[in-house]
Amino acid sequence: MSEPTSTDPISTAPPGTGRIGVRKTYKLFIGGAFPRSESGRSYVVNDAKGRFVANASQASRKDVRDAVGAARKAFGAWSERTPYNRGQILYRVAEMLEGRRAQFVDELRAAGQAKSAASTEVDQAVDRWVWYAGWADKLGAVVGSANPVAGPFFNFSTPEPTGVVGVIAPDSPLLGLVSVVAPAIVSGNTCVVVAAEPAPLPAITLAEVLATSDLPGGVVNLLTGRRAELAPWLASHMDVDALDLAGIVSGGAELEEAAAGNLKRVIRPGSGDWSEEPGTARMTAFLETKTVWHPVGV
Amino acid sequence: MDFEYAPAPESRAVVDIRPSYGLFIGGEWTDGSGGDRRKTIDPATEEPLAEFVVATAADVDRAVAAARAAHDRVWGPMPGRERAKYLYRIARIIQERSRELAVLESIDNGKPIRESRDVDLPLVAAHFFYNAGWADKLGHAGFGPDPRPLGVAAQVIPWNFPLLMLAWKIAPALACGNTVVLKPAETTPLTALAFAEICRQAELPPGVVNIVTGAGETGRALVAHDGVDKVAFTGSTDVGRQIARTVAGTRKRLTLELGGKAANIVYDDAALDQAVEGVVNGIFFNQGHVCCAGSRLLVQESIADELLGRLRTRMATLRVGDPLDKNTDVGAINSAEQLDRITALSEAGELEGAERWSPPCELPERGFWFAPTLFTGVAQSHRIAREEIFGPVLSVLTFRTPAEAVEKANNTPYGLSAGVWTEKGSRVLWTAERLRAGVVWANTFNKFDPASPFGGYKESGFGREGGRHGLEAYLDV
Amino acid sequence: MPNQVVTQTGFGCFVSEPRVGDAGGVSTETLTGARPSGAELRAFLHGLPGVDQVGADERAARLATRSIKTSAKAQAIDMAISMVDLTTLEGADTPGKVRALCAKGARPDPSDPGVPRVAAICVYPDLVGVAVEALQGTGVGVASVATAFPSGRAPMEAKLADTRAAVEAGATEIDMVIDRGAFLAGDYLTVYEQIAATKAACGAAHLKVIFETGELATYDNVRRASWLAMRAGADFIKTSTGKISPAATLPVTLVMLEAVRDFRDRTGRQVGVKPAGGIRTTKDAIKYLVLVNETAGPDWLSPAWFRLGASSVLNDLLMQRRKLATGVYSGPDHFTKD
Fold it and tell me: Is residue B107 part of a domain?
């Protein structure tokens, strides 16, 4: 292990103070716990100038499997929380993120962003949680309906979460990540996320935020590692209900084909500007419409 | 006193079936380029009805080109209020020709005239009428102020509700400003071909609706065609999967309405006589050729004997036979192939140890028939509890508690529909909330309406047809 | 495919599988004789499975689409004629009017002796004697409404006296009205006891119990009233007086037919059903026969077990009958107005 350099923005040990900094071990986030990859593998994460920052866990297909298991286990209870409660928890995430602004700014700078850009991205990430938090108890009213059928029936449609969503997060290490995770979980889905490959560390730090925000374990599971290795396992997994390919640059067709095995709902890869207001599309993509009929009589 | 109903056949004279049909492309009847033709038969008699063209890839190409031209030059630019008027016209013509179309549907499909007359045709007209009204109101549908159509829609439909599935596909597509190339099923092309004539009577601009007949190859060519922007398919989950793979990596939008294995849950406090009706309607409607059929009866063990007794009595009053007899409740199985599948799965049910029962009933010598069948003592692990039979075969399982009912109901890769019967309101909602299915019929079953979204969870497909939600499949949102 | 009577196996329901919260343990003897307590009766009636209105309406409407043609129609018309309780219940009824009606009932179509006679002539108690005399030797029964018909709002002694008078005058069938007020107030025992007392007063005469379903309002009430009346000894259950709208409807009759079917399954005793009021056309009458055939079953398709309370329907049945026989549409003046 190399010594931290004096310019290491994440180092907690200023040079010459004599105190050796206590570093963070970046691990995976599965079922509310922070395990290492079952494979025992890790990969080096450098900063933009090529200097060592940390060893990130390199998740394996078995980690994908475990994460999907955790997400499935968490789905029932999370989807049955009241929308108000989910909204409060997402807002709590924003609060926790705000409280750790500096740490995220540092991590984004390590990933190569200028200070002001990093600061703006963290602000936007906080605001995005707030934005989605507010959707929790409004989505049903906006996309649900009472349907005027031609007969003595009360007929209504409500949105329900699809289930377990596999997310290949985009390269934007924090704002992009938040922009794909928040819309998936706000409606009651749980997810397994493959973090941005080049800059995975903010994802794990975000996991620490999630773990301290009353978000039940397993609702968000974060894996770091090789997209090309992990994405096909997620795409083909028969207990994953939907797939967001936001971070896929090439090979999207193969993943979509694999996703057809159990007819996953798929958001195709697309180049997005994550700083724009996102609209509802990422939420509605992972909603099912349930329509209930009941007779009206005495 | 025995009261025998004399035969009450609906007249076939109202329909005029041509000996052979071409393809309807660009508003004209055209011959296929391949010369290959097939026959469609009356499944109740096995008599051939007409020949139709098996469209080739080149024919599909022509149809897509015609649809593209119509979209770009006429239908796309046309104001919504004008598109609406064409759809209203079509709805009215369908109402005017309703009896003819009902008879034609029953002859080609085998379904009882009572159903084609009282269910299919009224719904077909209603779907056009309903969607017509959307055409100039799309900006109010919640998809932005000026949602745009996708372009050319490739639509492949099944044989169980031939004209109704056509309506579910074509009406919203046209309302949203798309043009379509539709392929009806190879065993039931006739009402789609009659619909082509209706388009001409309505003076719909050429190319807005194109009908290409054929079998699997034609369908594959259509969904794989580079010129289509949208693929909509109703049919089996296996074919749906193939289509999803074909469309993967393209810009094409996809909606799929696939198979099902719906649970119909009857609690011990249900209104029993109506529950029995609902169970019967759930599985014997349209010979059980219904993707959302209530093919698994989950009955609370404490009332199982009573319910099954009533169910058997009721099943004995079902009248099986001539689809054109106005008193027929259960008509003909649509094809020899489908009859083979139903027969094979029923035999598997017996081999696996379930107890099989049918009321005594004489089936006609010719044609494809299957008596209404009840399997009791079915376990979750039996094939007849897991696989879609798509026939008049009901598998009965029991449960002890509401949680067990929901667990069993959801324990399937499908998720299209479900039923729940209880007189207790809170239990209705508790159960409906937990059922992973796109349509939940509570104290009713197999109800359809153009204003009501329909479609599945899980491997029953994605996307909705009907209602405001149904528009999303045909808009660029 | 034949509509067969299915054997009783599999109907162990009520006996072997008591429903939670109802009087599931009630024995056959209790159901057919012993006087219940108010609490038991209430628990029993409220423990009956509910009736979903929309589902019942739907079932009745679907059966109404049955197409009864040619030979089946001929059979149905004669069956319907033989089931008619030809009725006059007017304040202005006179002996002359009743005699005319009796003549019609005994021989509905003077030009065609093949036409069956009606089941009974139904009159007020004070005119029973006239009807009995006029119908002597015809085989047509004499039915009389009693118990302060149609409201039933009279002291019990008066209602029983009304009944006894009709029976003594020769009525073979008594059509009583239940106390709807007591029923709607939940006082089922009073209703039960009044039916039982009237039954006792009837002696050998058959008792038809009128619910006035238009006032009971819900199908759940119709089902409860059906079981209540059958337990109290009714020979027939009847929808309506004809004085309240709605009178007989197909779904109400459906619910009552289900009740008599279930009652026989449980007790072995068969009870008849009589829709009354609002049945005006052959088409209406045939819909009821289809309902009987496919709900209670063919065992009920006889005048002993099913009646149509009506008057104007008879001429329409006769007109349709002649049309079938001659192939020519007939006119009203070719049939007697009585």
Answer: yes
Same domain, B298 and B315: yes
Whether B330 and B320 have beta carbons less than 8 Å apart is answered as yes
Which tokens hold the place of B154? 């490739």
Give pLDDT tens digits for A140-193.
999 999 999 999 999 999 999 999 999 999 999 999 999 999 999 999 999 999
Residue C268 pLDDT exceeds 50: yes
Minimal CA separation from B280 to chain C, in Å = 11
Of the pLDDT bands very low, low, confident and very high (cuts 50, 70, 90), residue C25 is: low
Q: Which of A256, A262, A294 sits opposite B443 (nearest CB)?
A: A294
Q: Do A291 and B438 touch (CB under 8 A)?
A: yes
| Same-domain pairing of B165 and B120 | yes
The residue ranges of every structural domain in chain A are: 42-295
Q: Are residues B412 and B470 in the same domain?
A: no
How far apart are the two ends of chain B, measured CA to CA in Å? 64
Q: Please give the DSSP secondary-structure letter assigned to residue C223.
A: H
- Residues of chain B with pLDDT > 70, as a percent, come to 100
Q: Give per-residue pLDDT as tens, C206-217.
A: 999 999 999 999
The residue segments making up the domain with residue B407 are 263-442
The dotted CATH code for A42-295 is 3.40.605.10
A150 at interface of C, judged by CB pairs closer than 8 A? no
Kindly name the residue from B105, B115, B186, B291 that is annotated as catalytic.
Answer: B291
Count of beta carbons in the 10 Å neighbourhood of residue B431 = 23
ipTM score for this prediction: 0.97
> Which residues are within 8 A (CB) of C201 and not within 5 positions of it... i.e. 6 or more apart?
C160, C163, C164, C167
**For residue B431, what is the domain's CATH number?**
3.40.309.10
> pLDDT for C61-77, tens place per residue?
999 999 999 999 999 99
Give catalytic status of residue C274 as yes or no: yes
- Chain B residues at the A interface, defined by Cβ less than 8 Å, are 126, 142, 237, 240-241, 244-245, 248-250, 256, 258, 413, 415, 428, 432, 435, 437-444, 447, 449, 451-455, 457-459, 461-462, 464, 467-469, 477
